[in-house]
Structures are given as C-alpha cells and as structure tokens.
Fold each of these.
Amino acid sequence: MTVLSGEGIEVTLPPGWEGVIGRSGAVADGAVRQVVAHFASFPLPAVRGDFGGGAVEGMGPQDVLVVLFEFGPEAVGSTLFAAEGVPAVGAADFDRSMLQRSITGQSGVQRFFTTANRTFCLYVVVGSHLDRIDVVPTVSALLGSLRIK
Amino acid sequence: MEALIILEGIVIVLLVVLVAGLLRSHAEILRQLDSLGAGEHHETFLASPRRQSSLGAIGARALHGVTPLGASVSLALADARGHTLLAFLSSTCASCGAFWNGSRQLGLEGVRPVIVTKGVESESPAEIARLAGAELLTIMSTEAWEEFRVPATPYFALVDNGSGRVVGEGSAPDWDRVEDMVRRAIADAGLHRSTALRKADVDEELADAGFEPGDARLYERPETP
C-alpha cells in the first residue's frame, strides 16, 4: 500500500495502483486551475484530460480509473453538491451511458459531493461493465481511504 | 650547495608522487566511464549485474515524487503490467541533450518512458518543465536516484512492472539506441515470463479484439468445413 498526498487530499493506493494529485492543465501559465486527482490500476499516460481522456482509451477489462475534480468555492452550498462526504460506489451504480467518452465495454459512475467545505466530482470508470463486480471492492477501499482537508 | 641538492630531490619526489596520483585518477575515471558505457561505443545496457547494480529486486514498489508543475505522483513499479523505462536526466548534463530535445514516445508497446530528475532541492522545476515538455511523464525525485543508485547521467533503468525487478540498466547516447537495448532486455526477460503474465497478455489481446470476459463468441463451437 502506498500513501499519496497533495493539495489537501490523501489516499492509500492499492498494490499496483498509481496516482497523480495536482492542478488541471499541463502548462505553467499562471492561471488559477482546479485540483484534479487521477488514481488508476494501470499505467497513467503523461497527457490526460481532467476526466481521463487519453487514459481511458488504454484501459483493459480489469482496469479502473478514479477521478476527483474539484470545483470552485462558488459551488459550495449549491444543490448539485448537497451530498456530504466522499460517496460510496457500488456495482449497481455503474452505467454505460455515464461515460464522458463512450468506449465499448466500459461503464462509469459520477457523483458530486461536498467535504471540508470543498466541492468535488467523483468519476469512476471500469474497463469492463460485465466484470465490474471484480474491481468494485478495490474502488471502495480506495474511496474509504480518501482524506480531504 | 648540499641544501640545494636536497631541496631539488624533495621537489622531484613530490612531482613523481603528483604525476602518479594524476595517472591513477585518470585511469579510475576511464574505468568508471567504460563501465557506464560512456566510452566510444555507448552500447552498454547491461542485462547482467555490475558493481552496485540495481538489477534485480528493488526495495521500492512505487516511484514517488512531484512533477515540475507541482503535482504529487506515485507510479507503480510492481504488481502492475508492462515495463517502466526510467530515464535519469539532469539539467546540467551535457550528454542529456539528445533526450531532452529528442523526447518522444518509444516505439515499444507496453513500455512507458518516465524522465526522473533529482528533486526540487537540486533542480529548478521551471527549467525541468522547459526541457522535458509534456510528452513524457517527468518526476522529480532524489529518493528515486538513491533507490536506483544512479552513477551518472544519462542513465536508464528498465523495470518489469509485474515482478518489480530491474531487468536492464545502463547508458546510451540517444533514444534509438535505448530502444534497441530495451527491446533486447525484454526479449531476454521474456524467456522467463510466468504463466500468469502470459495469461494476462492473452486477456489483453482478446480485449483489444473486442472480446470481453464471458463473451458468448468464446464458447461457440468452431465451424467445421
């Protein structure tokens, strides 16, 4: 198990998983950028979109991508982010139509929540909708280890 | 007169000691350069142990560090698939130019190149960001340099992400030569690939062909002529 922390987010990565916690965007142009975290059970590519574009295309059937995208302080208190705390995700929550980018075999789940006065979108993609039950326990363990300050 | 002769003798002895020391130092430098493959041929990418080699199992199961833009990163070096090619580079290393400026994706499927520089206490993040660009993952981590006992730059270590073992290491003058050496190291290691890893390869190839686990087509009786 590996503990990764940054930007007030701490997570325990399962064996073989990797992660990046930083700011959106690939250039240091001085603009204020949102916090984005990518946790994956497969090798993350260098160039990735905020919601996993560039990474999901290389996922195998047993792969999982977990994305945390932080919205600005203006979103605190809004209806969309009314849920408190890091949400749990079950096999029944995954939907093929929930993908940011539709890829055969994959499915995803998206949840919006508030914690520590910060608002996030949690987006999880599994490589195989049919076999998602195999990976959901690992996703649950990862989400259970998330600490956000 | 006698004093002058004695003084001259002392000076001669000191000069002899100085020259001997310089020759010894020169020989040591040449020997170390040769062992790193930084000599005339640049063909070293050792698949067998050398002094202080990091070949074999490494203590780290993951590579930790920060990107030049400040993101925290942890990359898996074990219990994962494929290979990671760690390219240890420095902003002050003259022979690293080919790797900074010529950075590109390797033409090797399943091999992820990662540039590793020393941490922010030794390197300027802005300078590393400028040199590295965005095409390759770049991690600043002095801890990684110590873990892999990096002797000089440029230096490369190829990690089998399944076993977490270093299966090749050494130096080379450009990406083309690195690619050749990586291909050789993987071919050598492939002779000892486990059944579980070969099974994972088959699963991946089936997935690429559009066959998910449980696909009914996998259980159809083949047509007979």
Amino acid sequence: MPADLDPGVAEHRITLLETLDRVLNRGVVIAGDVTLSVADVDLIFVGLRLLLSSVETARDLRTGRDF
Amino acid sequence: MADETEGRATPAPENGVGWYVYGVIPWSVEVPVTAGIEEGRAVAFIFEGPIMAVASPVSLGVFDSEPLRRNMEDPHWLAEKVCQHEAVVEAMLAKGPVLPMKFCTIFRSPDAVRRMLREHAPRFQEALELVRDKEEWGVKGFAHRGYLREATLRRDPELREMAEQLARSAPDRPGSAFFLKRRMDDLAEQRRMEREAELIREAAEALRGSVVQLTSNPPLRGQRVDNGAPVSTEGLSACLPAGAAQAGGNAQAGGHTGEEVVLNLACLVLRQGVQTFLAEVQRWNEARADQGLRLVASGPWPPYNFSPRFGSHAG
C-alpha cells in the first residue's frame, strides 16, 4: 500500500455500503412462488438509512471527537 | 439422481425451516462447510446435475416473509445478516466461480431448491462460465463540484470574458453587475454539469479496454461525503469481507470533504488483468488530478452485478 494513503476507516464506510448494496440489491434473483421470501428493496432502503444514521450516532457517542 | 456424493449428504426436509440459498456453484468445486446465517446451522450442499446450491436451514419464525419484514427494519440485524451472507459467498469465491444470490432467497425444501436449479440450469451454467477466472470490481467516481466549477471558470473563454467584464463594471451601476453576475453563475453551473458528464463518459471509456464487462449503476444513496470525517463502523466492520476492505485500502482512499458520488460502475475483470485494470484507474486519476472527479476502485467482489435475474414465472 502506498505510504501516503491512509488505510483508515473511510474505505470501510464505502465498503459497508457497497456490501449492503450488492447483497441487498444485486445477485441472482429468483422471482415467483418457488421462493418463500426474497428481500424487499424498498424496505431495505429504510433500513440502510437508519443504519447509516445509527453508525454516525454511535461514532459521536463513543468517541466524542473528530478524526 | 444420487443423494449423496463424495460423502457430502444432501439435506433432508425439516419442519419449521426454510432453505436459505447463498449461491450456485459448479458441482465439482470443493467448498468448505462454513457457518450459515443462523447460529448453529452450517451450510449444506444441494446438488442438481452439474451445479449445486450452497444453502442452510433457517427458522421460518425469523425468515418467513412476515417476520423477515419486521427484522429488516432493525439496521443492526440487517447489517449482521448481510455480512454473514457475504461471508459464506466469499468462502465459495475463494474456491471457484460462484453466482451469489440476492439476500434472503429462501425455499420451502431442498426439493424446491433442486427444482429451481433444474429449471434454470442452462442459464446458471452459462453465467458460471462467464464469471470463471474473473473478479468483480467496483469503481466510484467522486466529484468535487467546487473544484469542477473552478476548473470550468479557469478554462472557459466565455466565462473568463464575463469575469473580466464584472471586474470592470462601474461601481455606480450595481444593478447591471448583479445581472451579469447571475448570468455568469448560471452559465458556470451549466458548464460544470457538462464537464462532469463528459468526465463520467471519459472514465467509463478509459476502463472499457481493461474489463470483460462493465455496467453502470445509479450512485448509492447516502454517499455524499459531508465533513470528511471518516465514519467508524465499529462493531460492523468486523464482519466486512476482508478481501474487499483490504483491496479498497489498496486502491485509493475513499471520499473527501465536499465530494459526491456521481459514478458507480461494476466491472467484470479477468483475474490476470486486475493489475492492468487498477493501473488504468490510477492513470486516469493522475491525468486529471485537478479536474474535480476522482475514481476509487474496490474489490474483488463476488459477481453480484453479473449474475442472472430470472423472471416471475415459476414453471
């Protein structure tokens, strides 16, 4: 890794978002009545926004400082 | 069809459980038995001809449509389960080609999984061949609209002319200066948008030569970088795929203050060509260091963006 790049947590946020986006919204889709349940995308965005805001809040509560 | 192959038993139906499918892989690939999405229930393999599904039993009390809807409203439950799903897929990815399923694709019985595999076998096999020996990489374009605008103001002759006029404008006629300023702002914004669109096109074109396939997705919501402070994902980052996090750090730093994601590409790259591809990303960035659009690569990912999506018919 180049020395001038901070391997810090900024990428983790991107990666977490990317993980959520891929697992929730992409991948093989089997539609129809063969499946019992398949995650519902609209609901998921509600959860995603909540997740992000809760991550922000958790950071503020825990550290109380700027990075 | 043999229910048992090389000592790996096909699971029997069980009451009160559904079968959560993580992905589809070729029959011949040896995959480790990892933990499933529910504690105490490891993954099992469901064979059908030349392909197999990696699945695990899950309680219907948690994963049936109705309880699932409620559970997904809990962001921590959701993040944890998404990461567990991803971990199983990553374990498969380490062994050979895999087609990852969308989150919470659950069947009533192993037989139902087998029927699904049988129905879509040709498409699965075709898709497995497409992703064999390849990796999915994400490329995000971060635009700094302030820089983009400044670069436009510097370069555009019409805007420079207006700026000079504005500087010369008579102080006793503030009205005309006001309208000139407004026209200039409107034009600068229009030019900024044009330049941004142009850079986005150029970026995709520059990468096309080093990828097998490329798809453009809408930028993710919530990806504006407002204060530049990296956000801790403590408690969540632990379950992130190690490969992805590492490669993200390897490629470039993430978003900076005032930046916005304006480009979200998924690239299917030959494993042998990954270094060339990443060098291309870096070259693009170096050549446009002062332009206000940076590319950031992340990967390798399972080929979520290059997996088939089947229609709504069941038969």
